[in-house]
Write a structure and sequence with these properties.
It is an enzyme of class 2 (transferase). Catalyzes the phosphorylation of hydroxymethylpyrimidine phosphate (HMP-P) to HMP-PP, and of HMP to HMP-P. Pathway: Cofactor biosynthesis; thiamine diphosphate biosynthesis; 4-amino-2-methyl-5-diphosphomethylpyrimidine from 5-amino-1-(5-phospho-D-ribosyl)imidazole: step 3/3. Keywords: Kinase, Thiamine biosynthesis, Transferase. GO terms for molecular function: hydroxymethylpyrimidine kinase activity; phosphomethylpyrimidine kinase activity. By secondary structure, this protein is of the alpha/beta class. The chain has a domain at about 5-145 and about 210-250: UDP-N-acetylmuramoyl-L-alanine:D-glutamate ligase, CATH 3.40.1190. The chain is built from 8 helices and 9 strands. Strands 3-2-1-4-5-6-7-8-9 form a 9-stranded mixed β-sheet, sandwiched between helices. α1 (about 20-30) packs across α7, α3 (about 85-100) packs parallel to α4 and α7 (about 210-225) crosses α8 (about 230-245). It is globular and about 45 Å long. The two termini are about 30 Å apart. About 50% of the residues are buried. The protein binds adenosine-5'-diphosphate and ligand LCLJCK34. Adenosine-5'-diphosphate (ADP) binds near residues 179, 241 and 245.
């Protein structure tokens, strides 16, 4: 645990509507006492209704941003989000292997937006599984992403310890998210270093769920340098997200027919 203000890096795609991607990550870092840095991997035309277009940056463009940043700024934790292609996954994996000094790494295996639009090439899953997952401390799949990572025919209905254990065999700790269920509570399972933690929160009745996965993984990265372990950091990250969901109706973003953002600065305004 550090007492200095942590510098936390998001490597992710953009969301001009500010609810997901690198925009959400930087808001989350700021709200949770971390100084935010960002490396852009993709320029995504999206809003609360869905994704209109995806423009991937080249591996060289991503590599140069990472190397230039790390040559100057001490990074205390990294959150990795949308990468888009196998080539960019290889580039980020190489960069992380070359920088073992970055202590904490959270990987959100972003594949598909809640609108159904693809954010990762289909042929990139192997590279994600074999090159990037083993470089992470914790991966944060939702149930659909867990099914793809484990080659299951369809997403399981809810997170289970068995599913988390099978994901952990890919080489990282696991925060298996159950946000897409329908019960009264929203249940996740954290499995790190053989320790299982069940995380439960009341399910908030709102359409403003755009960027919940981005916000959760960013909060874990922001809090890990400020807490004693992943269990404490993840519990506090989920509490922050639950409050941001509960306060989201105070925002007025989008036409109201899509999925709006959570309120990242609910504690201030
Ligand atoms: N309506 C909700 N109320 C409370 N928590 C939620 C709700 N929707 C999602 N969550 C929580 O948000 C986090 C992200 O989960 P999920 O929505 O499954 O991820 P993703 O955005 O990657 O699909 C999890 O901790 C999940 O339990
Ligand atoms: C640029 C970008 N990255 C990730 C996502 C997916 O965000 P997520 O938190 O999983 O939330 P939904 O979009 O699924 O609601 C994204 N949309 N854009």
């Amino acid at each position: 645990m550090t007492t200095r203000i942590p510098n936390v890096l998001s490597i992710a795609g953009t969301d001009p509507s500010g609810g997901a991607g690198i925009m959400a990550d930087l808001k989350t870092f700021g709200a949770l006492g971390a100084y935010g840095c960002g490396v852009v991997t993709a320029v995504v035309a999206q809003n609360t209704q869905g994704v209109e277009a995806v423009g991937l940056l080249t591996p060289d463009q991503v590599r140069t941003q990472i190397e230039n940043l790390l040559a100057d700024v001490r990074i205390d934790a990294i959150k990795i989000g949308m990468l888009g292609s196998a080539a960019v996954i290889e580039t980020v994996a190489d960069a992380l292997e070359a920088h073992p000094e970055v202590p904490w790494r959270v990987l959100d295996p972003v594949m598909v937006a809640s609108s159904g639009d693809r954010l990762l090439d289909e042929d990139a899953v192997d590279a994600l599984r074999s090159r990037l997952v083993p470089t992470a401390d914790v991966i944060t799949p939702n149930l659909a992403e867990a099914a793809v990572l484990l080659d299951l025919p369809e997403p399981p209905p809810e997170p289970t310890e068995d599913l988390a254990a099978r994901l952990a065999q890919l080489g990282a700790g696991v925060m298996l998210k159950g946000g897409h269920g329908t019960g009264d509570s929203s249940e996740d399972i954290l499995l790190v270093g053989g320790d299982v933690t069940h995380l439960s929160a009341p399910r908030i009745a709102t359409r403003n769920t755009h960027g919940t996965g981005c916000t959760l993984s960013a909060a874990m990265a922001a809090l890990r340098p400020q807490r004693d372990g992943w269990a404490e950091a993840t519990r506090d990250a989920k509490d922050y997200l639950t409050q941001a969901l509960a306060a989201s109706e105070r925002l007025d973003v989008g036409a109201g027919t899509g999925h709006g953002p959570v309120h990242h600065f609910h504690a201030w305004w």
